[in-house]
Automatic annotation (TrEMBL):
Belongs to the phage and mitochondrial RNA polymerase family. The keyword Nucleus does not apply. This is DNA-directed RNA polymerase. Residues 88-409 form the DNA-directed RNA polymerase N-terminal domain. GO terms for molecular function: DNA binding; DNA-directed RNA polymerase activity. The keyword Endoplasmic reticulum does not apply. GO terms for biological process: mitochondrial transcription. Its EC number is 2.7.7.6. GO terms for cellular component: mitochondrial DNA-directed RNA polymerase complex. Residues 218-242 are annotated as: Disordered. Gene3D superfamilies: 1.10.287.280, DNA-directed RNA polymerase, N-terminal domain. Keywords: DNA-directed RNA polymerase, Nucleotidyltransferase, Transcription, Transferase, Transit peptide. It catalyses: RNA(n) + a ribonucleoside 5'-triphosphate = RNA(n+1) + diphosphate.
């Protein structure tokens, strides 16, 4: 059977209502201390330094070959040729999202210009298309003014590293996604939005630079006389005398640059949090200046309504219980028409997807992904934590890398049958199997203040849940035809490991766990078949999960007809599976058990179902083990028992 899975930025008050006065990034962005590190150039002169660096170059080549072999070994059953194909697909997964979106907007604009007609688009895409050109032009003008004026010094070094059209797409979609999922219902905190956009821009710049470098390396010309491929004159000129280039740099005492050439590296220093926030806030300011919407025509009005800003910068005040005073923070508020359109829109652009191939953690900031930043620890912009991890010896971090690699080297795939059931329920309005209803709760006509507040709160929660489900399903639909994919992991400051992909993963909700299964199946065997039956009872819960193992097996065998009906007709039959506490995982196991029992040999049936197992009150388990406490161990299932023990029930019964 398959393996068990075990920011406050200072905002000055606006003097112009909700408009952007006081929104200058220079005025309020101060997120974290700037990280400054200057390379100390060694006082080195002489071409002999090249020879000294050659052993280092060989070490780098050997290290790369070592990791190449490890990657192949970590992807069993995949030959080197298929591994190269999958790595190319991984490059595409990491690099394609914003590239595809930018290309789509350009093609739509071209189509509009050629046919003098707006294409038939969904409401939000037509809005984005209307904002794309003026926003891109504004970014382009800002890039031309880089270096002029002190107000631009904070973001000038970073603002022209990416094409303006791609920056506009990233900023629009990131802000819209944050409005959808940020928990402020139609608003996004300025601080959070600025940092989120800046981080996305930094990641895309890294990908853009690497792809440009790769493209230049692949420039080739075809020698028709000799009938062989050769490198282009530009590439040949660049590579014909690297020793001369290295020697010149040594004479200029540029040894760090020499090392980069010898190692073949172009590592860009990560941005600090202040830089990310300033880039993001300037992009938000430009979007606020260029994004407008046209309200619907009022038949009773004398003249057509004027366009109004799609987003405004305003302030919110939050007060704390048992504390005097209140705290004011800046937010980006979107127009109600925009919010209504966003609620009916699903976004298909993700910059972080599960991996097509498995990659080892090579350093504290490298590995797991090919291009995207992959930090071994989630630091959330805390400089001290980043420096501590950066200074830690490789030998000390190696066990952490190996543990994360073990967790990440499990291949998953989408359970298409369960996904099809989820899609049917969701397309019919949800409200089944713990899926949220597509509709809001109607507001009462003359409500009491408290009742109205409660209904609005529930509708905000429903909106957030709908957005969350849309994101999960979008990822599942995108990955459903993949043979398998991987979830790279990293840790938080406590040492807890989590998948880097935030939406659909095996540690998520019942929906996520039900949709995912192991890509590599195993024959059930006698023990696996027994555990599949126990797993059904565990997922049904309702007290059944507290029975002994034999009692849970008996429960499953007594409900085989219901299990078969759930597997064959999940939405058209008796729908018994909807009574389970974890319905989608339960449905997946019903389908798997049905197929196994109907096969000619259930014990040799290849199963892909993960049997999730959890500890009983892990903290008390550690205390009982450390103290050799037999009574405590029995209460938290550290020792064998006839049926599961519940420490809370045991204490309540005393």
């Amino acid at each position: 059977m398959g393996k068990p899975s075990f920011i406050f930025l200072r905002n000055s008050d606006s003097t112009n209502g909700n408009r952007c006065a006081g929104f200058c990034p220079r005025g309020y962005v101060s997120v974290a201390e700037a990280v400054s590190s200057t390379d100390v150039e060694d006082n080195v002169y002489g071409a002999d330094e090249v020879q000294e660096l050659l052993p280092e170059m060989r070490k780098e080549e050997e290290k790369e070959e070592h990791f190449r072999r490890r990657r192949l070994h970590a992807n069993p059953g995949i030959g080197s040729r298929k591994h190269r194909v999958l790595r190319r697909r991984q490059v595409k997964i990491e690099a394609e999202a914003w590239e595809l979106a930018t290309k789509e907007y350009k093609e739509l604009l071209k189509d509009m210009c050629e046919h003098k007609l707006a294409p038939n688009l969904p409401y939000m895409k037509s809005l984005f298309l209307g904002w794309f050109e003026p926003f891109t032009d504004a970014i382009g003008k800002e890039q031309e003014l880089i270096g002029t004026g002190k107000s631009r010094q904070g973001y000038a070094p970073y603002f022209d590293l990416l094409p303006a059209d791609k920056m506009s797409v990233i900023a629009m979609h990131q802000l819209a996604a944050l409005v959808m999922t940020g928990g402020e219902h139609g608003c996004a905190r300025v601080v959070t939005a600025a940092c989120m956009i800046g981080d996305a821009i930094e990641q895309e710049i890294r990908i853009h630079n690497i792809l440009e470098k790769t493209r230049k390396k692949k420039e080739k010309t075809y020698d028709s006389k000799n009938g062989v491929e050769g490198e282009s004159p530009a590439v040949m000129k660049e590579q014909e005398n690297p020793r001369k280039k290295v020697t010149d740099l040594i004479k200029k005492q540029k040894l760090p640059a020499v090392r980069k050439i010898v190692k073949g590296k172009e590592d860009s220093k990560p941005w600090n949090a202040d830089a990310r926030a300033k880039v993001g806030s300037r992009l938000i300011e430009l979007l606020l200046q260029t994004a407008y919407i046209q309200p619907p025509c009022d038949q009773l009005a004398d003249s057509p309504s004027e366009p109004r800003p799609a987003f405004v910068h305003t302030f919110r005040t939050v007060s704390y219980e048992n504390k005097k005073g209140a705290k004011k923070y800046g937010v980006i508020q979107c127009d109600p028409l925009v919010l209504k359109g966003l609620e009916k829109t699903s976004f298909g652009y993700f910059c972080l997807m599960p991996g097509a191939v498995f990659n080892f953690h090579a350093n504290y900031d490298k590995g797991a992904h090919l291009f995207l930043p992959s930090y071994v620890m989630r630091i959330h912009g805390v400089k001290q934590q980043r420096e501590a991890v950066k200074r830690a010896p490789r030998k000390q971090l190696q066990p952490v890398f190996e543990a994360l690699d073990t967790l990440g080297n499990t291949r998953w795939r989408v359970n298409k049958r369960v996904l099809s059931v989820v899609d049917r329920i969701w397309s019919n309005g949800g409200c089944l199997a713990d899926l949220v209803d597509h509709s809001d709760v109607p507001l009462p006509e003359k409500p009491e203040t408290g009742k109205l507040r409660g209904v609005k709160k529930e509708n905000r929660e429903r909106h957030a849940q709908r957005c969350d489900i849309e994101l999960k399903l979008a990822v599942a639909r995108k990955m459903k035809d993949e043979e398998g994919f991987y979830y790279p992991h990293n840790i938080d400051f406590r040492g807890r490991a989590y998948p880097m992909h935030p939406y659909l993963n095996h540690l998520g909700s019942d929906l996520c766990r039900g949709i995912l299964e192991f890509a590599e199946g195993r024959p059930l065997g006698k023990s696996g078949l027994r555990w599949l039956k126990i797993h059904i009872a565990n997922l049904f819960a309702g007290g059944v999960d507290k029975l002994s193992c034999e009692g849970r097996i008996a429960f499953t065998e007594n409900h085989l007809d219901d299990i078969f009906d759930s597997a064959d007709k999940p939405l058209d039959g008796k729908r018994w599976w909807l009574h389970a506490e974890d319905p989608f995982q339960f449905l997946a196991v019903c389908i798997n058990l049905t197929e196994a029992l109907r096969s000619s040999s259930p014990e040799t049936y290849i199963s892909h179902i993960p049997v999730h197992q959890d500890g009983s009150c892990n903290g008390l388990q550690h205390y009982a083990a450390l103290g050799r406490d037999k009574l405590g161990a029995a209460a938290v299932n550290l020792v064998a028992g006839e049926k599961p023990a519940d420490v809370y029930s045991g204490i309540a019964a005393r």
